[in-house]
Amino acid sequence: MAELFRWSREFNVGIAPIDEQHVELVGLLNRLHAAVREQRGVEAVRDALDELVACTLNHFADEERLMSQARYPAYAEHRIHHEALTAQVRALQRRLESGETTISFELLDFLRVWLMRHIGESDRRFGEWYHREGAGRAGESPWWCFWK
Known about the structure:
This protein is about 75% helix and about 0% strand. With about 150 residues, it is an all-alpha fold. The protein has one domain (about 15-135): Four Helix Bundle (Hemerythrin (Met), subunit A) (Up-down Bundle), CATH 1.20.120.50. Helix 1 runs antiparallel to helix 2, helix 2 packs antiparallel against helix 3 (about 75-95) and helix 2 packs parallel to helix 4. The protein is elongated, with a radius of gyration of 17 Å. This is Bacteriohemerythrin. It holds the Pfam family Hemerythrin. One of its GO terms (molecular function) is metal ion binding.
């Protein structure tokens, strides 16, 4: 089976839970690609896309929570990237549901490129910053939480 996106350790950002989620997202993207390539039908494609979207939304929430806790300076910009992709994918889901469109290989390539660039650039910058400056902040308790 030809993978759309072959994961390699080069994509690791050095934050284990984030890296694990990235691996899962890549696997789900490859599953979606296989459903389209093997012409498994609309239901199989929709199910694969829905699972990819749900996992992506959970990942974005976890990543943003960590960024917020660590007070990542580029958090707002990073969140805008997440929101833009989320809006595009939700629109695609609506169009698929209405029968207005199908998932094309061009769309799959767009998702692959977006994910590769986002992990390789934006998430990597966060990982580097996190290990340099933010890891301690993410574990700090608020000033008013003195009993921890």
